[in-house]
Amino acid sequence: MSSAILELPPLATASVGGGTVCYREASGPAGAPVVVLLHGFLATSGLNWMHAFAPLSRHFRVIAPDLCGHGGDAFERRRFTLEQCADDVAALIVGLRLRRVIIVGYSMGGMVAQHLARLHDGLIGGLVLSGVDWGSRQYGKASTLLYPAFMTATLQLVHLHACLLRAPLALMRRLGSRKRRGRERGPISTAAGEFGGHNPRAIGGAAREITLFRSIDWLHEIKVPTTVLVTLRDSLFPPAEQRRMAQEIAAARVHEYDGGHVSARLPEYASALVLACLDVSSRMAEGKAR
What's the confidence (pLDDT) of residue 148? Predict the structure, then answer.
């Protein structure tokens, strides 16, 4: 992994629905459209989007919250649901006095984004979905069989991070605070600090919600300009199902990225994401001018 220095936007906080949402903000050009980035399962705003802040902020004001149970949020006693995450993001948008934002959702964040476009369409001007589909892998009541597999994978990932970094969670948090102490951060210390704040109970709830997600019955209700950035080598969300999702959304276009499910954390993916966001922004402007 490259040792290049990463300059993440600092964390800010906002009171939302009885808890505190942590988010990162990168200022864009004056009057620029606002992009809200929603991260995937087990990631955070910093970990998922570490390579996207800089290129996106050349064109947009960028807001990236930590979703419930991930990173720095403070909803420890609340049950995780994708709909509640959508409500949290909507409350953050209102609290920051934003309107007609572009929502970018990756993986689990794409599920939240779909709920957000359905439940809070008045706040949303456009949508970018990537590394996600409509819930093609359905398990119904059998989802309880998959739930242990998700949790096993979670625990294995925790163990992998600990082994690679040779540090307990306390050290992960200390590494994550280097920027606040004026020290530079590379990708490994960035990942360590971001991963250390996860809430195990909420992570388990998120895993279950992912297995139950299904949007195919209401995707047609999404009317805003949408770009589906298909991850062509994605083994979790098959490209064919990502395309089917796009077909169900009337105002959707398809872009492609030749990568797998962890693409969002790669520098090369950021360029494709910028183009997807610019496509949506352009169509929003065309609609406003009519």
Answer: 46
* Residues 34-77 pLDDT 10s: 999 999 998 899 999 999 999 999 999 999 999 987 776 545 55
CA distances from 122 to 36, 61, 76 (A): 15, 19, 29
Distance CA 116, CA 14 (A): 19
Alpha carbons 104 and 88: distance in angstroms, whole number:
15
Structural domains in the chain, CATH included, are 11-135+214-289 (3.40.50.1820)
Q: Rounded distance, CA 233 to CA 178, Å?
A: 35
Whole-number Å distance between alpha carbons of 75 and 68: 6
Residues 231 and 13 sit within 8 Å (Cβ to Cβ): no
If you compute the radius of gyration of the chain from its CA atoms, what whole number of angstroms results? 18
With CA atoms as reference, report the closest residue to 35 among 268, 279, 234, 290.
279
